[in-house]
Amino acid sequence: MINLSSIDVTNKNLVIRVDMNVPLKNGNILDATRIEACLPTIDYALKNNANILLISHLGRPTEGNFEEKFSLMPVANHLSKIIKKSCELIDTPNSDTIFNSNCQVQLLENIRFFHGEKTNSDELGYQLANLGDVYVFDAFGTAHREQASTHSAIKQSKVACAGLLLEKENNFLGKVLDNYENPYLAVIGGAKVSTKLELIKHINNVAENIIVGGGIANTFICAAGYQVGKSLIEDSMIDFAKEILNEGKILLPKKVITSDSFEGSNVKEKSIADIEDHEMILDLKIENETHTIINSAKTILWNGPMGVFENELFEDGTKTLSQAISNSSAFSIAGGGETLSAINKYINLDDVSYCSTGGGAFLEFMEGKILPSIKALNAKNTEE
Ligand code: AMP
């Protein structure tokens, strides 16, 4: 990939695809982490006196319609405050005002309002690619989607490069993908095996140990022949789980926290051999053996909570695990929305070597897939 630093962007017009898909409630930004993650590229461009047009999506509006609740106006306002420069919201990519205004920083309205984004249309891609001098792709969180602003525009641009966030994600995640040090430990939690099937397959080939948690652990506990009562499991994944268990890398919890309801009635700590029909496994105990494995790991990949940590009755597994990862000297990476919430809740982002901004993109990258946007950027490099 061509990186931003290898291009002379002084006084140029830069179109920067970012991921500013922040959570909003009544027009208020609940968490601005994604906007902040774009700042290094924006600051770099400003320092080089470049003009900036930012492109982002927000939520899932119906293509072709403007819907106020998906407008990027709150993002433009927030950005203006943090960069201490006004950021102008532009309502259409045809606008004559793009790179022709008093504002050095402009933001195009939600790209998902425009026909052709989802279908990766050549027409929209061409239009976006030709708005400026350089197309900078910095939206790691959406690099796994083949859409007009994440794929076609890169392909059709005169010059395209990776922004600083994409470069950082690629370096940190790439280190664990290709250059990890053993012992390599993967921690995979969350709700469903099916959403992380490819990651588990890949990890099973490379990691020495795999700690499972959440609904994923329940499916493995069931596959190992234990009764799991009313716990969340996926029947269709039992055979797959049995195959993976046979490889001997999965560390099943021995003790778990059960309850008769998600709200927390009749909460008990139990051995996995003693689960009754009316019970659900909603959290797990982190054993001494697990601490030993975490402490001796040189590389740790973490995705997904160990239990229903949103309820403090079932947060202990996720909390203890976060603290153990924070105390370990391993090179650690974490990704996924729930994982970052857990990190923010129990430790600090800095306690992990790198926290990815991606959810789906993080999973696919760590499965060893070359993401469509990265593939398009790589192809651009060989073209030149
Ligand atoms: P994911 O997006 O796949 O990482 O899943 C995260 C969600 O899994 C969280 O909202 C948790 O509440 C949920 N979860 C974790 N453990 C369990 C469990 N034992 N049973 C049901 N849901 C769980």
Blueprint (SSEs and pairs):
Layout: E1 13-17, E2 24-25, E3 28-29, H1 33-37, H2 39-47, E4 51-55, H3 73-83, E5 87-90, E6 105-108, H4 122-129, E7 134-137, H5 148-156, E8 160-162, H6 164-178, E9 184-188, H7 197-206, E10 209-212, H8 214-223, H9 238-246, E11 250-251, E12 255-259, E13 268-271, E14 280-284, H10 288-296, E15 299-303, H11 316-327, E16 331-334, H12 337-346, E17 354-355, H13 360-366, H14 372-383
Parallel strand pairs: 1-4, 1-7, 4-6, 5-6, 7-8, 9-10, 9-15, 10-11, 15-16, 16-17
Antiparallel strand pairs: 2-3, 12-13, 12-14
Bound molecules: adenosine monophosphate.
Adenosine monophosphate binds next to helix 8 and strand 14.
Describe the structure in brief:
The protein folds into two domains: 4-164 and 371-383, Rossmann fold; 180-352, Rossmann fold (3-Layer(aba) Sandwich), CATH 3.40.50.1260.
The spatial strand order of the largest sheet comes to 5-6-4-1-7-8
The total count of helices amounts to 14
Number of domains: 2
- Content-based structural category: alpha/beta
Strand content: 15-25%
- Let me know the number of strands: 17
Q: State the end-to-end CA separation.
A: 11 Å
In percent, how helical is the residue content? 25-40%
Overall average pLDDT: 96
CATH superfamily of the largest domain: Phosphoglycerate kinase, N-terminal domain
**Major β-sheet profile:** 6 strands, parallel
Shape designation: elongated
Q: Quickly name the level 1 CATH class of the largest domain.
A: Alpha Beta
Low-confidence stretches: none
Instruction: Please tell me how large the radius of gyration is.
Output: 23 Å
